[in-house]
Amino acid sequence: MTATPAAGGRPPVMADVARVAGVSHQTVSRVLNDAGAVRPQTRARVLAAIEELGYRRNPAARALVTNRSGLLGVITPFGVHHGPVHTVLGVEEAARALGRSVVLTSLVEVRPDTLRAAVDHLAAQQVEGIVIVTSVASAVGALPAPPGVPVVVAQAHVTGALAGVSVDQELGARLATRHLLDLGHETVLHLRGPDGWPEGDRRERGWRRTLLEAGAPVVEPLPGDWSGDSGYAAGRELLRRWAALPPARRPARRPVAVFAANDLMALGLVHALQEAGVGVPAEVAVVGFDDVPAAAHSWPPLSTVRQDFRELGRRCVLAVLAQLGEAPAGPASAPIAPQLVVRDSSGGPVRRRR
Question: Which SUPFAM superfamilies match (predicted)?
Answer without folding.
Answer: lambda repressor-like DNA-binding domains, Periplasmic binding protein-like I
